[in-house]
């Protein structure tokens, strides 16, 4: 009554116009045709009028007269007014204001004049009737009312049963049992039934019972009996009591309720002849018993699961099985006696979903449908409901299928003709059905096909508004998949076809949805249903049985059994299998082989289970010593690589997981990506590759695939394609590269706070190696367009994405090569008649056009002072080229071609191979030979073009505005050192580039100074490397030593390759002047002295690292020494010094650090085998150098007059570390006496071969100001005329006197510069000052 129909103005002006308006309103209301609406409006109007009177707004006389006027407008107006007075009776009795109650009593008294007293006695309360005067006492009135009601409803009517005649019941049964196929109807039969009741004095209730009994026998004639029962004119509660009495009869332990009784009860409920609430109380068992039974079943299922997962004796197993069978039998018996479930089944079969849903709501979740007949009946109802929609969109072409007719009965669900109709009833039915859909595989397949049809329609929908309206349906399908389809699959017995059918739906979902469904299936569904609890335990038990017996020999048989288990319960199975693999890594190979019988859905679930196992937060990723990655993570990574390579499993989820881990700053899981890329593409990053493999890696793609890797890359085409497609489809290629490049520093500065240094190094190596491996995979597998489209420019990589420069150029290098080649081809097409020289010029032009923007971009990467000495062109050229551009590995090509020829010959000799297979193999080998030779020819042409380009560019590479010392410093700092530890190929490339810069006679490039810088002191470089970096640094030093050894071995080679080259000048007369004066060149014998000095410096640095006791120093120097073993040590006494230290390491570390012991023993054994190749120092270099007297004061380089080092026992046999202190003491006066500079500034700008860098000096000076002050004072003193005179005096005299003076300074080879002076003691973190040098390069 929210709408006010009597305005306050009417009440205020009642006498003038209000009464007239009120009566007119009532007349208008009574004239409407809608009776219900009329009654409601009249009640509202009369109620508001009476309320105004009760509240005092309207006088009693006005209100009573108005009511008397309108009472005649309609026949039932008195009844309507009585209802209004009844409501006001309740309201006024509840208020505290007595005035309103008194006014209400007055109003009722006034209404007695025009209303029947009977209506008021019927509607009003007894106290109100007493107040009005209609009754005398309210108490007596109530007592009398109770007696009358008791007599009417609870007193048994007396029937004279003896008067009943059996003949009447016989005739009644005859009438009801007659043939009803003719024109007989209930209207014709009812008079006969009534006549029999009257004639034979039959009890009407017993007659009704007989009618129900006959209906029960002929329940298919519902169309006849239902109208008969309706017209029998019995009260609903009477019919319900009779029906309930029938159910009570069958509640005895030995009785079973017939299905016909359930059937007629369901029909009567469906036609509303009986109320469910009244009939439900007559059924057994009670709801509380059902709840207790459900709890007991759940507990029993969990207990059975625990028994299956514990080890018991065989006798106990048999006892448990017997008890389990007894429980199952008891359970089935109890279920059969449940009358509520029987009624529920009947309701579902007649299509009364409304009442069936009400019954299921009274029981625990999924309790009703766990009864198989109930589940099947509900499935049949769903069949009928989805029939039209399935026929339209889900049925395969050519299929017929059973037809389910629509139910034309009250309460039956409407059939679905569109996807939106499924939300009305079908999804709700499926929600009640749950896992029991497994009883009806046909319906399961229908629902899956409907889901596929919906997903295809959803994916093809282009209208955003329409798609937004379909989102709720998508959520419903996901819920049904989670709650019904997947749990039902678990209860099916190894149904591979249904698993594949379900995969047809699942593959249309994004992997995020699929993995969410797998997670809920694995972690929630199996715990919510007692049946699934037992199935899970049985699956684990069977999996344990098969895994115990799985070997390489029985993979086929065990694989089939594992496949059967996986069809229904893949997540449970794989969870156990993965747990076993994490403990026993030798299971990986047989497990991978046994997975070939899996379905597509099982493969996808396996991917999810692997990711879940990897992301387990309870697992520690480090071993207890905190220095190595846990074995379980390594096992899972190996499994990932093997499984994803062999089987067609989607990679997107695993790749996204690794990406997310990197974004979170966690680098452990890069091991997974490394294994996946290695197994799927064959590209492996290892520093243990042989020299032949390393040589093959400098060739083309085909040569790298054939000879550069341990595995065969040609068999990886399909796995590589799948990995590439996954990366491109989900845009993960570039993000992974950038995250790995950034994470290298994150490992050191973010992850290393609480980690052991050894583990930090391993994580850094893993991150770096995976980056190199992944970048190599992208470069070799992505098309050039895909690669160029995804990799941004170098300045964007470095500035926007904060990518380190070495990684940025590594990613950009293939892009530059592609751009140059494309531009070159374009220029060649424009001028088709060009010849050799013109082609070279076009290639140079193409390089300039492509690389000019890069030259400008890199200038912002470093401070402007860097470009004072190095030109951006030189910097970009160094970083953009690779070994493929500098040299052709002819030997590697020849080796691979010879291998193929040998294979062809072996094929010809093989008589067991079928001819067609032999022919195919020969054709493959021959074609591969042709391709390799063609690739070699193309690389040769390419290298010639590159060398021609470098020859033209070299004059503009180096400015040398400061000194050549600074040029070499920046070159090593910004180019060589960052790249030589990037990869093994880059290490060789750096050495080759330095040699090439020397061979090209690059202006301002001092080769001698560069080599001296590299070899002078490797202590700090080695100490700052990781394990893999030290191996690569060793390869770099090995390549450098190879070149030096070649020059050292023969005077002719030296004179040819170094004799007249500006890189071996020892006097620089002006900046940019590399004159060809023969006197300025370092001659062969002095070069041999220099090489001996480099070997000595390497020995001293190695001994220092071995004697520090630091794990990193010892490990790294042993790795470096192992790599340079072919060319170092060559001098016998230096080798002996190393041998003593390494032998000591073997003794000290055998028990303490076994890994160092293994490294030391390996190196010690190899060095002993090469000891025969070592030579005495006198054979390595000529110790007595003839004195040149022509330029003693001006030239202090390799050709300077310098006394040779005497062949003393201290210098030959004593290890460097034993003689260091004595040498330093003896060298101090000699160094002071040989100082040629006259000021500290001049000493600072000297280009001495062994001088330290400016930065290192400044740092050392800042740390040791007092020491530096003394050094400067001593330098000034040594440059005075008196000191010069002393030097002249020492140069005079006979050779014997000179020899005696030289013997006073053991360890000194030749004259040394002031920058080579060593303090007796220095800090380990200070820059290492170089040893005394046999050469000195000065500025002229």
From TrEMBL:
GO molecular function: mRNA binding
Residue ranges, compositional bias (Low complexity): 1191-1211, 1230-1247
Keywords in alphabetical order: Coiled coil, Nucleus
Location(s) in or outside the cell: Nucleus
GO term, biological process aspect, one: mRNA export from nucleus
Limits of the THO complex subunitTHOC2 N-terminal domain: 562-637
PANTHER family: THO COMPLEX SUBUNIT 2 (PTHR21597:SF0), THO2 PROTEIN (PTHR21597)
Stated name of the protein: THO complex subunit 2
Lineage of origin: Eukaryota, Metazoa, Chordata, Craniata, Vertebrata
Protein's gene: LOC115818072
């Amino acid at each position: 009554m929210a709408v006010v129909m009597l305005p306050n103005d009417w009440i205020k002006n009642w006498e003038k116009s209000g009464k007239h308006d009120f009566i007119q309103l009532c007349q208008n209301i009574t004239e409407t045709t809608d009776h219900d609406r009329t009654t409601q409006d009249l009640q509202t109007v009369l109620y508001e009028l009476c309320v105004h009177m009760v509240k005092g707004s309207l006088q009693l006389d006005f209100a009573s007269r108005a009511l008397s006027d309108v009472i005649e407008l309609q026949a039932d107006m008195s009844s309507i007014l009585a209802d209004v007075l009844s409501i006001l009776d309740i309201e006024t009795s509840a208020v505290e204001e007595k005035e309103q109650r008194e006014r209400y009593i007055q109003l009722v008294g006034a209404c007695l004049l025009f209303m029947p007293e009977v209506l008021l006695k019927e509607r009003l309360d007894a106290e109100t009737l007493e107040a009005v005067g209609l009754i005398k006492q309210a108490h007596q009135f109530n007592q009398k009312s109770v007696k009358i009601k008791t007599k009417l409803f609870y007193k048994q009517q007396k029937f004279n049963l003896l008067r009943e005649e059996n003949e009447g019941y016989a005739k009644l049964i005859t009438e009801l049992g007659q043939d009803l196929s003719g024109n007989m109807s209930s209207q014709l039969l009812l008079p006969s039934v009534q006549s029999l009741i009257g004639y034979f004095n039959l009890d009407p209730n017993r007659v009704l019972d007989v009618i129900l009994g006959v209906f029960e026998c002929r329940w298919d004639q519902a169309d006849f009996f239902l109208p008969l029962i309706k017209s029998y004119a019995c009260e609903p509660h009477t019919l319900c009591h009779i029906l309930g009495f029938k159910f009570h009869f069958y509640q005895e332990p030995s009785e079973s309720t017939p299905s016909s009784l359930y059937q007629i009860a369901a029909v009567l409920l469906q036609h509303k002849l009986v109320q469910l609430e009244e009939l439900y109380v007559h059924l057994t068992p009670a709801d509380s018993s059902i709840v207790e039974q459900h709890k007991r079943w759940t507990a029993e299922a969990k207990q059975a699961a625990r028994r299956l997962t514990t080890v018991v004796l065989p006798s106990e197993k048999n006892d448990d099985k017997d008890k389990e069978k007894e429980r199952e039998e008891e359970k089935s018996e109890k279920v059969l006696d449940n009358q509520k479930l029987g009624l529920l089944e009947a309701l579902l079969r007649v299509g009364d979903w409304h009442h069936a849903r009400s019954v299921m709501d009274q029981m625990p979740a999924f309790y009703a449908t766990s009864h198989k007949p109930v589940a099947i009946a509900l499935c049949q109802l769903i069949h009928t409901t989805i029939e039209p929609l399935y026929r339209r969109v889900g049925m395969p072409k050519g299929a017929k299928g059973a037809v389910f007719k629509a139910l034309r009965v009250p309460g039956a669900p409407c059939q679905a003709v569109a996807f939106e109709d499924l939300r009305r009833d079908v999804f709700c039915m499926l929600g009640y059905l749950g896992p029991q859909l497994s009883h009806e595989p046909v319906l399961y397949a229908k629902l899956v096909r409907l889901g596929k049809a919906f997903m295809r329609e959803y994916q093809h929908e282009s209208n955003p508004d329409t798609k937004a309206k379909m989102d709720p349906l998508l959520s419903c399908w996901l819920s049904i998949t989670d709650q019904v389809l997947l749990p039902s699959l678990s209860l099916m017995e190894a149904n591979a076809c249904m698993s594949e059918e379900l995969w047809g739906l699942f593959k249309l979902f994004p992997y995020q949805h699929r993995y969410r469904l797998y997670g809920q299936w694995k972690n929630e569904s199996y715990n919510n249903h007692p049946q699934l609890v037992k199935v899970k335990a049985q699956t684990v038990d069977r999996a344990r049985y098969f895994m115990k017996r799985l070997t390489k020999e029985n993979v086929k048989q065990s694989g089939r059994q594992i496949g059967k288990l996986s069809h229904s319960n893949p997540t449970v199975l794989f969870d156990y299998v993965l747990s076993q693999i994490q403990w026993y890594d030798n299971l990986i190979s047989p497990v991978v082989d046994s997975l070939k019988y899996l379905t597509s859905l099982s493969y996808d679930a396996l991917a999810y289970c692997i990711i879940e196992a990897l992301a387990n937060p309870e697992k520690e990723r480090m071993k207890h010593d905190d220095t190595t990655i846990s074995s379980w993570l390594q096992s899972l990574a190996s499994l990932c690589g093997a499984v994803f390579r062999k089987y067609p499993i989607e990679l997107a989820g695993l790749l996204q997981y690794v990406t997310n881990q990197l974004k979170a700053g966690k680098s452990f899981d890069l091991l997974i990506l490394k294994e996946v890329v290695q197994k799927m593409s064959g590209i492996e990053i290892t520093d243990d590759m042989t020299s032949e493999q390393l040589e093959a890696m400098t060739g083309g793609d085909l040569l790298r695939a054939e000879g550069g890797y341990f595995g065969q890359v040609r068999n990886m085409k399909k796995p590589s394609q799948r990995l590439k497609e996954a990366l491109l489809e989900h845009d993960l290629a570039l993000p992974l590269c950038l995250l790995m490049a950034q994470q290298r520093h994150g490992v050191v500065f973010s992850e290393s706070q609480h980690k052991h240094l050894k583990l930090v190094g391993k994580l850094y190596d893993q991150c770096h190696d995976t980056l190199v491996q992944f970048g190599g995979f992208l470069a070799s597998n992505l098309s050039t367009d895909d690669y160029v489209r995804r990799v941004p420019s170098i300045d964007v990589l470095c500035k926007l994405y904060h990518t380190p420069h070495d990684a940025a150029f590594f990613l950009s290098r293939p892009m530059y090569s592609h751009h140059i080649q494309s531009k070159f081809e374009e220029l060649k097409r424009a001028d088709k008649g060009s010849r050799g020289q013109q082609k070279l010029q076009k290639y140079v032009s193409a390089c300039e056009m492509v690389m000019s923007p890069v030259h400008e971009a890199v200038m912002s990467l470093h401070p402007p002072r860097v470009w004072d000495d190095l030109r951006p062109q030189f910097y970009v050229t160094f970083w953009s080229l690779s070994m493929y551009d500098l040299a052709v590995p002819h030997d590697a090509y020849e080796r691979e071609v010879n291998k193929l020829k040998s294979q062809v010959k072996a094929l010809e000799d093989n008589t067991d191979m079928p001819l067609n297979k032999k022919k195919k193999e020969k054709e493959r080998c021959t074609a591969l030979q042709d391709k390799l030779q063609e690739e070699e020819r193309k690389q040769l042409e390419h290298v010639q073009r590159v060398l021609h380009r470098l020859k033209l560019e070299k004059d503009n590479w180096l400015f040398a505005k400061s000194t050549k010392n600074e040029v070499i410093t920046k070159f090593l700092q910004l180019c060589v050192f960052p790249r030589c530890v990037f990869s093994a190929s880059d290490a060789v490339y750096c050495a080759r580039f330095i040699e090439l810069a020397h061979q090209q006679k690059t202006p301002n490039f001092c080769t001698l100074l560069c080599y001296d810088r590299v070899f002078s002191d490797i202590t700090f470089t080695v100490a700052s490397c990781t394990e893999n970096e030290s191996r690569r640094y060793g390869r770099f030093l090995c390549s450098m030593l190879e070149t030096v050894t070649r020059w050292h071995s023969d005077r002719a080679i030296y004179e040819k390759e170094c004799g007249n080259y500006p890189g071996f000048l020892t006097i620089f007369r002006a900046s940019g002047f590399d004159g060809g004066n023969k006197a300025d060149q370092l001659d062969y014998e002095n070069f041999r002295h220099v090489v001996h000095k480099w070997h000595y410096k390497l020995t001293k640095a190695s001994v220092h690292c071995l004697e520090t006791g630091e794990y990193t120093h010892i490990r790294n120097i042993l790795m470096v020494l192992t790599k340079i073993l072919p060319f170092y040590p060559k001098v016998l006494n230096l080798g002996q010094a190393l041998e003593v230290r390494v032998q000591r390491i073997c003794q000290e570390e055998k028990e303490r650090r076994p890994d160092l012991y293994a490294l030391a023993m390996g190196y010690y054994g190899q060095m002993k085998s090469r000891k025969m190749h070592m030579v005495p120092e006198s054979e390595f270099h000529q110790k007595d150098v003839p004195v040149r007297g022509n330029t003693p004061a001006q030239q202090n380089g390799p050709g300077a007059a310098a006394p040779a080092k005497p062949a003393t026992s201290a210098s030959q046999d004593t290890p460097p570390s034993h003689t260091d202190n004595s040498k330093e003491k003896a060298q101090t006066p000699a160094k002071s006496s040989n100082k040629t500079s006259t000021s500290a500034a001049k000493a600072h700008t000297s280009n001495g071969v062994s001088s330290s860098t400016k930065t290192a000096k400044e740092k050392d000076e800042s740390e040791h100001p007092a020491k530096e002050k003394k050094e400067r004072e001593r330098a000034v003193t040594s440059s005075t005329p008196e000191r010069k005179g002393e030097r002249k005096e020492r140069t005079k005299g006979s050779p014997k006197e000179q020899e005696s003076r030289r013997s006073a300074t053991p360890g000194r080879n030749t004259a040394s510069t002031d920058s080579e002076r060593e303090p007796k003691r220095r800090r380990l973190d200070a820059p290492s000052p170089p040893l005394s040098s046999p050469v000195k390069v000065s500025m002229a």
